[in-house]
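Weekly structure sync, notes
Attendees: PL (lead), two postdocs, one rotation student
Agenda item 3: pending single-chain targets
PL asked that the sequence for the first pending target be pasted directly into the notes so everyone works from the same version. It is reproduced below exactly as submitted, 156 residues in total.
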Amino acid sequence: MWIPPEVKEPVVFHESKRKKVSLFGSVNTHNGNFCYMFSDIFNAETFLEYLKQLILLKPKGKKILLILDNARYHHAIMIRPWLEENKHKIELLFLPPYSPKLNPAELIWKVSRYFTTHNRYFSSIGQLRDALEMKFVEWSKPNDELSSLCKINYVV
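Predicted structure, written out during the meeting:
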């Protein structure tokens, strides 16, 4: 930690307990539209809830190809019937193990932390969540920032 020499008695704010905000999120790589859902826990039920929310944003006549890591709840047996029923709307594509650099969503987390949470003190988890919510609402409409960040060059 660096403190200017003129500050004789610095006060450092910190939270003694480790708290976090958890959320699901994905970005449309064509237009930068960001879809997210806060969750207290990651499991098959909350993941299925997110998938149901995600397909509501699906453009008519298009199919969502959702790129995922290999979290256990992404492979849960309980979501398979729903996926089968909606296979014309959404398909899950799993990345190889230990390959976060291939997942466009990882860039979203990195940028959101940098612009929203780094070097900032939040006295409550609610303040942290509100700060993230403001950034995510901004990104929930198609935007150039996320579109260029997650751009995929297709080779035909």
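Discussion points:
- The radius of gyration is 19 Å.
- The chain has five helices and four strands.
Action: rotation student to compare against the earlier draft before next sync.
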